[in-house]
Protein backbone atom coordinates (compact mmCIF):
# COMPACT_ATOMS: atom_id res chain seq x y z
CA UNK A 1 0.00 0.00 0.00
CA UNK A 2 1.27 3.44 -0.90
CA UNK A 3 2.45 5.41 2.13
CA UNK A 4 4.07 8.38 0.40
CA UNK A 5 3.54 9.94 -3.01
CA UNK A 6 6.75 11.44 -4.42
CA UNK A 7 6.44 14.76 -6.22
CA UNK A 8 7.29 13.11 -9.53
CA UNK A 9 4.73 10.30 -9.15
CA UNK A 10 3.75 9.14 -12.65
CA UNK A 11 4.80 12.53 -14.04
CA UNK A 12 1.36 13.91 -14.84
CA UNK A 13 -1.65 15.43 -13.14
CA UNK A 14 -3.92 12.41 -13.55
CA UNK A 15 -1.27 10.04 -12.27
CA UNK A 16 -0.55 12.27 -9.29
CA UNK A 17 -4.24 12.61 -8.39
CA UNK A 18 -4.78 8.85 -8.66
CA UNK A 19 -1.65 8.19 -6.60
CA UNK A 20 -2.92 10.45 -3.81
CA UNK A 21 -6.29 8.68 -3.84
CA UNK A 22 -4.49 5.33 -3.57
CA UNK A 23 -2.29 6.62 -0.76
CA UNK A 24 -5.38 7.47 1.29
CA UNK A 25 -7.03 4.14 0.49
CA UNK A 26 -3.93 2.52 1.97
CA UNK A 27 -4.50 4.27 5.28
CA UNK A 28 -7.94 2.73 5.57
CA UNK A 29 -6.74 -0.70 4.46
CA UNK A 30 -3.90 -0.59 7.01
CA UNK A 31 -6.34 0.26 9.79
CA UNK A 32 -8.00 -3.11 9.15
CA UNK A 33 -4.81 -5.20 9.18
CA UNK A 34 -4.88 -8.13 11.57
CA UNK A 35 -8.43 -7.54 12.80
CA UNK A 36 -11.09 -10.21 13.08
CA UNK A 37 -14.53 -9.65 11.56
CA UNK A 38 -15.84 -9.08 15.07
CA UNK A 39 -13.23 -6.41 15.77
CA UNK A 40 -13.92 -4.71 12.42
CA UNK A 41 -17.62 -4.54 13.36
CA UNK A 42 -16.93 -3.19 16.86
CA UNK A 43 -17.98 0.38 17.54
CA UNK A 44 -15.32 1.66 19.95
CA UNK A 45 -16.81 5.14 20.39
CA UNK A 46 -20.14 6.52 21.46
CA UNK A 47 -21.35 6.59 17.86
CA UNK A 48 -22.29 3.87 15.40
CA UNK A 49 -19.04 3.94 13.42
CA UNK A 50 -16.94 0.80 13.00
CA UNK A 51 -13.95 0.14 10.76
CA UNK A 52 -15.97 -2.32 8.69
CA UNK A 53 -18.73 0.23 8.26
CA UNK A 54 -16.26 2.95 7.35
CA UNK A 55 -14.75 0.66 4.71
CA UNK A 56 -18.18 -0.01 3.24
CA UNK A 57 -18.93 3.72 3.17
CA UNK A 58 -15.77 4.65 1.27
CA UNK A 59 -16.38 1.83 -1.23
CA UNK A 60 -19.93 2.98 -1.88
CA UNK A 61 -18.89 6.62 -1.96
CA UNK A 62 -16.14 6.18 -4.53
CA UNK A 63 -18.27 3.91 -6.71
CA UNK A 64 -21.17 6.35 -6.51
CA UNK A 65 -19.09 9.35 -7.57
CA UNK A 66 -17.56 7.54 -10.54
CA UNK A 67 -21.05 6.38 -11.57
CA UNK A 68 -22.34 9.96 -11.35
CA UNK A 69 -19.42 11.18 -13.47
CA UNK A 70 -20.39 8.57 -16.06
CA UNK A 71 -23.98 9.79 -15.64
CA UNK A 72 -25.09 6.37 -14.41
CA UNK A 73 -26.91 5.57 -11.18
CA UNK A 74 -24.78 4.43 -8.23
CA UNK A 75 -24.73 0.69 -7.54
CA UNK A 76 -26.51 1.37 -4.24
CA UNK A 77 -29.00 4.20 -3.88
CA UNK A 78 -28.97 5.87 -0.46
CA UNK A 79 -31.50 8.26 1.00
CA UNK A 80 -32.76 9.06 4.50
CA UNK A 81 -34.41 5.64 4.81
CA UNK A 82 -31.21 3.61 4.36
CA UNK A 83 -28.34 6.08 4.81
CA UNK A 84 -27.33 4.45 8.11
CA UNK A 85 -26.63 1.18 6.26
CA UNK A 86 -23.74 2.75 4.38
CA UNK A 87 -21.80 2.81 7.67
CA UNK A 88 -22.34 -0.78 8.80
CA UNK A 89 -21.70 -4.25 7.54
CA UNK A 90 -25.09 -5.91 7.21
CA UNK A 91 -25.87 -9.63 7.25
CA UNK A 92 -23.18 -11.66 5.50
CA UNK A 93 -21.15 -8.64 4.30
CA UNK A 94 -17.49 -9.06 5.25
CA UNK A 95 -14.36 -6.97 5.38
CA UNK A 96 -12.70 -9.29 2.84
CA UNK A 97 -15.60 -8.89 0.41
CA UNK A 98 -15.60 -5.11 0.84
CA UNK A 99 -11.83 -4.94 0.27
CA UNK A 100 -12.20 -7.04 -2.90
CA UNK A 101 -15.03 -4.81 -4.08
CA UNK A 102 -12.92 -1.71 -3.37
CA UNK A 103 -10.17 -3.13 -5.59
CA UNK A 104 -12.72 -3.35 -8.42
CA UNK A 105 -13.96 0.16 -7.72
CA UNK A 106 -10.38 1.50 -7.60
CA UNK A 107 -9.58 -0.15 -10.94
CA UNK A 108 -12.71 1.39 -12.47
CA UNK A 109 -11.80 4.82 -11.03
CA UNK A 110 -8.33 4.62 -12.56
CA UNK A 111 -9.61 3.38 -15.92
CA UNK A 112 -12.25 6.12 -16.08
CA UNK A 113 -9.95 8.98 -15.07
CA UNK A 114 -7.13 7.87 -17.39
CA UNK A 115 -9.47 7.44 -20.37
CA UNK A 116 -11.36 10.72 -20.02
CA UNK A 117 -10.57 13.24 -22.75
CA UNK A 118 -9.87 15.97 -20.17
CA UNK A 119 -9.95 16.56 -16.42
CA UNK A 120 -11.85 19.72 -17.35
CA UNK A 121 -14.81 17.61 -18.53
CA UNK A 122 -17.82 18.17 -16.28
CA UNK A 123 -20.83 16.28 -15.05
CA UNK A 124 -23.94 17.34 -13.12
CA UNK A 125 -24.04 17.19 -9.35
CA UNK A 126 -26.82 15.13 -7.82
CA UNK A 127 -29.97 17.01 -6.81
CA UNK A 128 -29.14 16.78 -3.10
CA UNK A 129 -29.94 19.81 -0.94
CA UNK A 130 -26.27 20.42 -0.04
CA UNK A 131 -25.29 20.96 -3.69
CA UNK A 132 -26.14 24.05 -5.72
CA UNK A 133 -29.12 23.58 -8.05
CA UNK A 134 -28.02 22.46 -11.48
CA UNK A 135 -24.38 22.51 -10.36
CA UNK A 136 -21.63 20.88 -12.38
CA UNK A 137 -18.13 19.79 -11.42
CA UNK A 138 -15.06 18.71 -13.35
CA UNK A 139 -13.28 15.38 -13.25
CA UNK A 140 -10.43 17.25 -11.55
CA UNK A 141 -12.88 18.29 -8.81
CA UNK A 142 -13.98 14.66 -8.57
CA UNK A 143 -10.41 13.45 -8.01
CA UNK A 144 -9.79 16.13 -5.39
CA UNK A 145 -13.08 15.26 -3.72
CA UNK A 146 -12.13 11.56 -3.58
CA UNK A 147 -8.77 12.51 -2.05
CA UNK A 148 -10.48 14.70 0.54
CA UNK A 149 -13.18 12.19 1.43
CA UNK A 150 -10.85 9.20 1.59
CA UNK A 151 -8.30 11.14 3.65
CA UNK A 152 -11.01 12.31 6.03
CA UNK A 153 -12.15 8.75 6.57
CA UNK A 154 -8.57 7.45 6.81
CA UNK A 155 -8.23 9.77 9.81
CA UNK A 156 -11.40 8.33 11.30
CA UNK A 157 -9.98 4.84 10.68
CA UNK A 158 -6.79 5.73 12.57
CA UNK A 159 -8.79 6.84 15.59
CA UNK A 160 -11.09 3.81 15.51
CA UNK A 161 -8.17 1.39 15.23
CA UNK A 162 -6.25 3.00 18.06
CA UNK A 163 -9.42 2.89 20.17
CA UNK A 164 -9.78 -0.84 19.49
CA UNK A 165 -6.32 -2.09 20.36
CA UNK A 166 -3.97 0.87 20.78
CA UNK A 167 -2.24 0.36 17.42
CA UNK A 168 -1.11 3.56 15.74
CA UNK A 169 -0.08 4.26 12.15
CA UNK A 170 3.53 3.28 13.01
CA UNK A 171 2.37 -0.10 14.33
CA UNK A 172 0.18 -0.66 11.29
CA UNK A 173 2.97 0.18 8.83
CA UNK A 174 5.16 -2.36 10.65
CA UNK A 175 2.36 -4.96 10.41
CA UNK A 176 2.00 -4.27 6.71
CA UNK A 177 5.74 -4.59 6.14
CA UNK A 178 5.67 -7.89 8.04
CA UNK A 179 3.04 -9.13 5.59
CA UNK A 180 0.16 -9.42 8.07
Keywords, separated by commas or semicolons:
two-stranded antiparallel ribbon, 180 residues, 56% helix, mainly alpha, 2 strands, 6 helices, single chain
Summary?
56% of the residues lie in helices and 3% in strands. The protein has 180 residues and is mainly alpha-helical.
| Count of individual beta strands | 2
Helix content: 55-70%
Rg, alpha carbons:
17 Å
Low-confidence segments, given as residue ranges, are none
Main sheet: strand order: 1-2
Count of helices? 6
Shape: globular
Give the biggest sheet.
2 strands, antiparallel
Mean pLDDT figure:
92
User: Gap between N and C termini, in Å?
Assistant: 12 Å
Query: Beta-strand percentage?
Result: under 5%
What is the helix/strand order?
A: HHHHEEHH
Structural class: mainly alpha
Amino acid sequence: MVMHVPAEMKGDERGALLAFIEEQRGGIRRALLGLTEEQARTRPGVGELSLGGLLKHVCEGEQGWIARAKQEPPAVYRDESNWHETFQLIGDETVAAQLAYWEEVAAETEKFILSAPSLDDTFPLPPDPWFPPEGRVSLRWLCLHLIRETARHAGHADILRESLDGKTAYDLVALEQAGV
